[in-house]
Amino acid sequence: MTSSYPSLARALAEALVDVLWFFDGSEDGQMDQDDAVKVMEGVAQVVSTLSSDQQQELIALLGEMAAAETNPARREFLEEFPEGFGLIDDLP
Question: What's the whole-model pTM score?
Fold first, then answer.
């Protein structure tokens, strides 16, 4: 079986985004919103501890994913991910 991902980092970034996209879009009845927020905050904590090079690699991967995304709402989520999860400082 051949992977459709060019790297392990890309595959893991895709999986991470899929999970966070689900949490972000879930309704109250689908999932406990406090639990969803805890997971998303946990991810933000983990990515904040990545080295600068690792953070830049993740930002680049997210940019590639956003450029290839056909769903406008998911593309926006991908574009906002670096700022929303603390990979870049808030923009003025």
Answer: 0.83
